[in-house]
Amino acid sequence: MYMALKHSHMLFVALSVAFLAIRFLLSLKAPALLQNKFFKITPHIIDSLLLLTAAGLMWTIQQYPFQTPWLTDKLIGVLAYIALAFMALKGRTLLLRWLGFIGALSWLVIVAKVAVTKTPVIFG
After folding, report:
1. Membrane-crossing residues (predicted)?
2. Whether the model pTM is above 0.70
3. pLDDT tens track, the chain, 124 positions
4. Which of 93, 6, 120 is nearest to 57 (CA)?
């Protein structure tokens, strides 16, 4: 069960990041395409499944944020990723959007490092 959840979670992480990159590039080059129903609904489905697999993993290993420091770091990193991804897609200026996109990807690297090493970076 654990391995299936872990691999599903990693798949949804990859899909979420891919959709962020695609939507970011479309927002720069062809913003009208973002009004397509596919680009409005699919990221929410992927991110919901990502959160469900994360919850399933926490339940399976019996470790939770604010109880386990590395999961607390991961949660904070994911919240930073979400905020910066929002800025990348909705920022007022091109500079802010690029900073949001690069920042979101940077936080993703931190979250991945914490997930692999199980060593907190922020609260460690």
Report:
1. 37-59, 71-89, 95-116
2. yes
3. 999 999 999 999 999 999 999 999 999 999 999 999 999 999 999 999 999 999 999 999 999 999 999 999 999 999 999 999 999 999 999 999 999 999 999 999 999 999 999 999 987 6
4. 6
